Amino acid sequence: MNAAQAAPGEGEVFLTGASGFVGSHVLAALLAGGYRVRALVRGPWDAPPGVVSVAGDLHAPGALIPALRDCRYVIHTAALYSFAPRDRPAIAAVNVRGTAGILEAARIAGVERCVVTSSSAALPPAAGSRPATERDWASVRHRGWSYHASKLAGERAALSAPIPVTTVLPTAPVGPGDRRPTPTGKIVVDLLRGRMPATLGGGMNIVPVEDVAAAHVLALEHGRPGERYIAGGVNLTLAELWGLISRAAGRPELTFRLPYAIAAAAARVDGVRVRLTGGTPAIPLEGVRMGRLEMYSSSAKAADELGYRPSSADDAVERAVRWYRENGYAV
Known about the structure:
The protein is an alpha/beta fold. It has helices at about 20-30, 65-70, 90-110, 145-160, 185-190, 210-220, 240-250, 260-275, 285-290, 300-305, 315-325, and strands at about 10-15, 35-40, 50-55, 75, 115, 165-170, 170-175, 205-210, 230, 235, 295.
C-alpha cells in the first residue's frame, strides 16, 4: 500500500454531513466497509450503532482538532445548498471557509488524508458532443456567493490545502432518503404532486446516491491525492429525465417545453418578491439558468482508477419515488 491509498476498513474516519442525503449514504458505505466513524453533527441525531457523534460545526473548525486527533482520515460531505439570497453569507462560511477550515484542523490533528465532496457545479457544460471531465473547470460569474460559485471555490481551496486531498464530484444524486429534498429530488416531488407542467431544453447527469457513496469510499482507498473524480451515472436531456420519473410514478409524460425566456422572466419576477420579503425563491434564477445547459459529464476516470461502476438510474428513480410516497411527500 502506498501513501495515496487506504486499506479497506483500516483506521477511523471523521465524517462531516453524516445526517445529510449524500453523507448518510457515505456513512452506510463506510460502516459496510468495516470502518470506524466519528460523525460531526450540529444537533440531536440518532447515531447508528458503533458511530461516535461529535457535536460542533464548520464555523469553529479549530474546536474539532481534539476529536480529529484519533482519526486517520476525513471525509467532508457537509455543505449548505440554498438559492435564497439571504443565505449567501452562510453559503460562503460553510462551503468555502468551512471546507478550508476543516482541512486545516485535520492537518494540525495529524490526519493522513482527506476526501472532499465537491459537485458537478464545479464543472462546465458539455462542449459540443464532449461531456465534461475532471480536466474541465466551471467559470462562474456571480455577485455574491451563489451555491454553484461556492462549490467551485470550495473545491479549489480543498485541492490547494497543505494536506493530501482527493475530491469527488457527484453529479445529480437520486434515491431514497433525500429529506430536504435536493433540487433533483424536488423534481421528483413536484412531478408526484403534479406541479411540473413543462421542461426546459437542457440536460443533466443523474446517478444513484448509493453509487456516489461508494465513490467516496473508493476515492479514500484508491484515489490519488490532488486528483478529482466525477461520480456520475447517465446523461439525460431534461425531457428524458422527466419521462423516466413520470414512468416510475405512473403519471403521464410531459411533452411541453417551456421557452427559456419565459422561465427566466418568471424567475426574475419571483426574485423581486424574494428581495421584498426575504423569502426563498419558488423559481430560482440560478436553477433556471442551469436548466438550459447540457450538464453532461464522464466518469471514465473514476472507472479506470477507482473501479467505480454506477448502477441503474431507472432503479434509483423508482426507489426515490417509492421513498417519497412512503414518507408523505407526494401529497
